Amino acid sequence: MKVQIEEMRLDGNAIGGLLREIFTVEMTSAVGTCASCGAVNEVGRVQVYSHAAGTVVRCPGCEQVLMKIVRGGGRCWVDMTGVRCLEFVLD
Q1: Which of 27, 35, 68, 74 could pair with 84 as two cysteines, CB 3.0-4.6 Å apart?
Q2: What is the pLDDT of residue 83?
Q3: Beta strands in the chain (DSSP E)
Q4: Model confidence over 35-55: pLDDT tens digits?
Q5: pLDDT reported for residue 63
Q6: Residue 18 dihedral angles phi and psi, to the nearest 5°
Q7: 40: nearest Cα among 83, 9, 79
Q8: Could you give the angle at the alpha carbon of 52 between the alpha carbons of 47 and 53, nearest 5°?
Q9: Domain limits of the chain?
Q10: Which parts of the chain have pLDDT scores under 50?
């Protein structure tokens, strides 16, 4: 019996527990791959620039933007467009 894709679809609440588990781990030892040049570095090795508006994270190889993080009003916005892949160990 072929399962229809709509029968498998859930809303974003279904991954709430998974995301909470993932983002409560030590991230400086996580390994990211730059979407621009393909360099692989630990998060602890990237270049970080903090400004009043937020934080910009750049690749140490090609200096392209990996992430942008903005905090304010009890919220946080994380743009990881420049990261092709992020690998980390779950505790």
Answers
A1: 35
A2: 97
A3: 31-34, 40-42, 47-51, 54-58, 65-72, 75-79, 83-87
A4: 999 999 999 999 999 988 799
A5: 95
A6: -60, -45
A7: 83
A8: 85
A9: 5-87
A10: none
Distance CA 60, CA 40 (A): 10
Q: Residue 51 corresponds to which tokens in the numbers above?
A: 């400004």
Q: Which neighbouring-strand residues pair with 47?
A: 58
- How would you classify the pairing of strands 31-34 and 40-42? antiparallel
Q: Which residue has the tokens 């399962």?
A: 3
**pTM metric for this prediction:** 0.81
74 sits in the region (left: phi over 0; alpha: psi -120 to 50; else beta) called: left
CA angle (57 as vertex; 54, 49 as ends), nearest 5: 55
Q: Which residues pair with 2 in a beta bridge?
A: none
| Residue 71 vs residues 6, 77, 78: alpha-carbon distances, Å | 36, 6, 9
Per DSSP, the chain holds a count of helices (H) and strands (E) of 2, 7
Query: What letter would DSSP give residue 82?
Result: T
